[in-house]
Amino acid sequence: MDTTVRKAAPTPADLTITVRDERFNRSTSPRRWWAGEPFGTAWHNALSATFPRGEAFFIEAVKAHREGADPKLEAEIRAFIKQEINHTREHIAFNRLAEDAGYDIKAIDTRVAEMLALTKDRPAIANLAVTMALEHYTAMMAAEFLANPKHFAEADPEVRDMWRWHAAEEIEHKGVAYDTWLHATRDWSGWKRWKVRSLVMISVTARFFKNRWTDSLELLKQDGITGWKAKWGLLKYLTVSPGVVRRIFPAWLAYFKPGFHPWDHDDRKLIELYEGDFEDALMPAE
Fold it and tell me: Which GO terms describe its molecular function (predicted)?
């Protein structure tokens, strides 16, 4: 099962986690920034509304287990924290745009706050397991967003730049929570480690899609789109075209593999594409 000292596909020894202190969305005010398309707008507005509190939770969950980490992991944790702080700042700015455009996202923020309040009396290792699972989600979606130009082809340019920036850094630090988990559970058996992370992923998946679906439908309602039109449009967006949920399913399934590690798939070339001439180097969609 999972092993403390891995023989294959660990976090690359030459990985550099770069803190890119970028700022976006201080002057634009798109409403349907998904090129007039409401379903992607609702989905990504719903995601963004969770990030400020969610990423603060990730930071605390990882920090709680950094004692005794080797120097490499300790440095990666510090860089992870700095990146997540910047992501929080930029999504606060983005969420303000959504509110200025007339969307009420306070209910989403309140729901996230209530859910996080339930974690205060939970063992710290449980919060790390949840963070590890959600970090896998952000990494899966980040890779898909950078690899598939359909997601941002017609988006507001500044908004698109923010999501690509965020995606590049999520890929870059995708192994930090997982390596912190391996460090924190180094005295566990491989079977226990695999069982806990698998069960937590199943629970996280159920809650993630239930809550984001509810949040997206509420935002669509604010756009005057309700009933089956809203549900079918959102389902089509997520599973058909561009179909982010369908396209990340293999990566989600890989999480349950004994001995899994986020860097089993080295997708740093997507970061290189972001940092280079991204528009000319976009990988073609299927």
Answer: hydrolase activity
Q: What's the length of the chain?
A: 286
Give the DSSP letter string of 119-131: TTTS-HHHHHHHH
Amino acid at 206: A
- Measured between alpha carbons, how far is 255 from 261 in angstroms, rounded to an integer? 8
Q: Could you report the per-residue pLDDT of 63-112, keeping only the tens digit for each?
A: 999 999 999 999 999 999 999 999 999 999 999 988 888 899 999 999 89
C-alpha span between 159 and 179 (Å, rounded): 31
Domains defined for the chain, CATH in brackets: 38-281 (1.10.620)
CA distance between the termini of the chain? 34
Angstrom distance (rounded) from CA 38 to CA 230:
9
Question: Which residues contact residue 110 at a Cβ distance below 8 angstroms, ignoring those fewer than 6 apart?
Answer: none
How confident is residue 281, by pLDDT bands cut at 50, 70 and 90?
very low
Three-state DSSP class for 3? coil
Burial code (b: 16+ CB inside 10 Å, e: under 16) for 180-197 equals bbbbbbeebeeeebbebb
Q: Is omega for the bond preceding 242 within 30 degrees of 0, making it cis? A: yes
DSSP state of 185: T
Q: What percent of the chain has pLDDT over 70?
A: 91
- Count of CB atoms situated within 10 Å of the CB of 74: 14
